[in-house]
Specification:
Helix content: 55-70%
Structural class: mainly alpha
Number of helices: 4
Strand order of the largest sheet: 1-2
Largest sheet: 2 strands, antiparallel
Strand content: under 5%
Length: 145
C-alpha cells in the first residue's frame, strides 16, 4: 500500500507518477500489509524473520506474565497485612514468604512506626520497581524485531 508523492515540484509533469521509478514513495499502513514484498528476500517469505518475530512475541508475553505475577504477589501481601489476615492460614503464610523473598532490598527502605504503613510503602515500592523493570525489558525486547 503506497502513495506517490506529488512530483510537480521535482519534474514539472503535474501529479503523474514517474514511470521510471525515480519518484519517492512513502508507505502507509503496518508492515506486512498486502502488496509488500515478502520478508527475508527469498520466495515464500522470510522463515527466519517470522521465527524471530514469533520468538520475540513469546518472550514479551513471558516477561509480562512474570512481571504481573510478581506484582500481584506483592499487592496481595500488602492487602493481607492491611486487613490483618490470619497468619496461621497456609495461603497467607505462603504469600508472605514469597513476598518477603521478592521484596529483598525494599523491606526496610522506609521505617515508619506503623507496621501496616511500612509494609504498604516498602512492598509497594518493590512492586513499582518490578513493574518498571518489566516494562523496560518488554520495550527492549520489542526493539529486536
Amino acid at each position: 500500500m503506497t502513495q506517490d508523492r506529488d512530483s510537480t515540484s521535482r519534474s514539472g509533469r503535474g501529479g503523474a507518477p514517474d514511470p521510471g521509478g525515480t519518484s519517492r514513495t512513502r508507505r502507509l499502513g503496518p508492515p506486512g500489509a498486502p502488496g509488500d514484498p515478502p520478508a527475508g528476500g527469498g520466495p515464500g517469505g522470510g522463515g527466519t524473520a517470522a521465527a524471530r518475530q514469533s520468538a520475540v512475541g513469546w518472550l514479551v508475553m513471558l516477561i509480562s506474565i512474570v512481571t504481573a505475577v510478581v506484582v500481584l504477589i506483592l499487592v496481595v501481601y500488602i492487602v493481607f497485612v492491611a486487613f490483618d489476615a490470619n497468619t496461621g492460614n497456609t495461603l497467607v503464610h505462603r504469600i508472605s514468604g514469597w513476598a518477603d523473598d521478592l521484596a529483598w532490598q525494599f523491606k526496610d527502605v522506609f521505617q515508619p512506626r506503623n507496621h501496616k504503613i511500612e509494609v504498604t510503602v516498602n512492598y509497594g515500592l518493590a512492586a513499582v520497581v518490578y513493574l518498571v523493570i518489566g516494562r523496560i525489558l518488554v520495550a527492549l525486547v520489542r526493539r529486536i524485531r
